[in-house]
């Protein structure tokens, strides 16, 4: 019975890793970020606590990032929006890198509730 749980957890870890990758690919393609957040919502319920924190982190990353993009898009008429969009790009890359590192160490992501990094 524990072997099935280990396989299921490994599968969930791979899914969480795939979501981080989808977010990074979403910088170029856009739609993959939406696919990633849907997957995070679907897989969050069955995951162990430490892995659930990754799914929560990914969901927060998506929605906070969507807010940054929205505000940056509005402010781009005043040129400051482009700086906000550049910040979003760096912010997303750093959050995904930190999440992937914590996932490899099988730990919860650091500062999961933070709006920054």
TrEMBL record:
Q: Which domain of life is it from?
A: Bacteria
Locate the transmembrane regions by residue number.
20-43, 63-94
Q: What's in the keyword line of the UniProt record?
A: Membrane, Transmembrane, Transmembrane helix
What's this protein's name?
Membrane protein-like
Q: Which classification does the entry list for the species?
A: Bacteria, Pseudomonadati, Thermodesulfobacteriota, Desulfuromonadia, Desulfuromonadales
